[in-house]
Specification:
single chain, mainly alpha, CBS-domain, Tetracycline Repressor, domain 2, 3 domains, 3-stranded mixed sheet, 68% helix, globular
């Protein structure tokens, strides 16, 4: 058994033992067991395995600090269920220990009414900052950033700057860098902690600071993630329209975004809502998926409509019916390969409106070469089983054409959707599959109709 399997078994046994303790009211034993689970993410995994009543029972055993640490690690649906069972006093105590970006993330998951009540309950200054942050566009740097950071003036001496940072550090989680601004708050650079502590106390910060690239508050979170990947930053400043420092984003926030965006693209390509999980109630899953299944039904009817034009040909040569799915299926598979590559490159920023023609050209050539190879192999297989040269030529040529179509359409549709500011992961696969089905059936049955006297 590998380490991951052992860990899964141990977690299952731990969950069962905690459930048994809850059933028997063994609070002190539960607290002793949970004290050995050091990271909040591991504790959150335990809570995720519980039902709602067990979850709340455990959550109330945590101290306030632990509650906040665990709450931000939980999925949105579980966060929501816990928050709905807490009073305003408990909630306000929990969020007092959280960074502003975590508070914003939490407020977005809970009912609006409770969010408003909570903001009216907490410290007015803190509430004012959070309201401002919630006013930024969703999924932008403004909502990702935290107001908790260390800042010094470019004219400060190293000794004074050190004192400022020591005072600020008490309220800052993960202090990586110190930001430097001028008298009006405009970002000038950063200073590493070791440089500040090791520099002569009389040196001005402007002498030892380094330049740093900043992120505008309105930058989309995908762009922010690419920014971090490109520059290998662990922390980056967020600025307003006047280049004034207003917040920071740390790499741990970006890891969450990268995972979220990747999962979203995968789900959307499958016609599933990005917020659907295994824990989502059945009726909600049905509701979320039905719309895309209706779209699929329409496209399937379109393909069937094309086939209906060749019913006479199929009646005369019944073997065509058994070979049709091969052409359409291979076209769909080839199109999916192309879509996956194009969507990935759009997401990473490697492909844009400026170099799209290179991608389409490449996929056309790939489709052409794959068409020659797969078309030839298909023709040979058809001849071996059917002993008909004309039929083999027809299916081979249809396969050749359809794989070219798959390459061109599979690369073009995501690019067109991206140009129209529509997420290319949302509907690309449906459109491409429709095109390859329609073209595949049309080419195969059309060629068969042309050469029907030789089949």
């Amino acid at each position: 058994m590998d380490n991951l399997s052992e860990e899964a078994v141990e977690k299952k046994e731990l969950v069962e033992s905690i459930k048994f303790m809850i059933m028997n009211g063994k609070d002190s034993m539960i607290q002793s067991v949970l004290a050995d689970i050091h990271h909040p993410a591991d504790t959150a995994e335990i809570l995720a395995e519980m039902d709602e009543n067990e979850r709340m029972y455990l959550f109330r055993l945590f101290d306030t600090e632990r509650r906040g640490e665990v709450l931000v690690e939980l999925d949105g649906e579980i966060q929501k269920s816990i928050v709905e069972n807490l009073n305003l006093k408990d909630l306000s105590e929990i969020i007092e220990g959280l960074e502003s970006d975590d508070i914003v993330g939490l407020l977005k998951e809970i009912p609006v009414k409770k969010s408003i009540e909570l903001l009216n309950y907490i410290d007015p200054k803190e509430a004012y900052k959070i309201r401002n942050q919630l006013n930024f566009q969703e999924n932008t740097a403004g909502q990702l950033m935290s107001y908790d950071y260390a800042v010094v003036n470019e004219n400060d001496k190293a000794s004074k700057a050190t004192q400022k940072v020591r005072r600020a550090a008490r309220n800052i989680e993960n202090l990586y860098l110190v930001y430097v601004t001028d008298d009006s708050g405009v970002l000038k650079g950063i200073i590493k902690l070791q440089d500040m502590f090791l520099s002569p106390s009389s040196w001005k910060i402007s002498k030892i600071m380094e330049p740093i690239k900043s992120i505008h508050y309105n930058t989309d979170q995908e762009e922010v993630a690419r920014f971090f990947i490109k520059y290998d930053y662990i922390s980056a400043p967020v600025v307003d329209d006047n280049e004034k420092l207003i917040g920071r984003i740390t790499v741990d926030d970006i890891l969450d975004i990268v995972e979220e965006e990747a999962a979203e693209d995968i789900l959307l390509m499958g016609g599933i809502s990005e917020d659907e999980k295994l824990s989502t109630p059945i009726y909600q899953s049905v509701k979320k998926r039905t719309s895309w299944l209706h779209v699929n039904l329409v496209t399937a009817v379109l393909a069937a409509w094309v086939v209906s034009f060749f019913e006479d040909t199929i009646q005369k040569i019944v073997v065509l019916a058994s070979l049709m799915p091969i052409v359409a299926g291979m076209g769909g598979n080839a199109g999916t390969q192309t879509i996956t590559l194009i969507v990935r490159n759009i997401a990473t920023g490697e492909l844009s409106n400026h170099n799209w023609h290179n991608a389409v050209k490449k996929e056309f050539i790939v489709g052409l070469m794959n068409g020659l190879i797969i078309g030839s192999v298909t023709a040979i297989i058809a001849f071996i089983f059917k002993k008909n040269i004309a039929l083999s030529a027809v299916i081979g040529l249809a396969m050749f054409i359809n794989l070219i179509v798959a390459g061109v359409v599979g690369s073009s549709i995501p690019l067109v959707l991206n140009y129209l500011k529509i997420d290319p992961a949302i509907a690309s696969s449906i459109f491409v599959t429709t095109c390859t089905d329609v073209f595949g059936f049309f080419c195969f049955l059309g060629l068969a109709t042309l050469f029907i006297n030789f089949l």
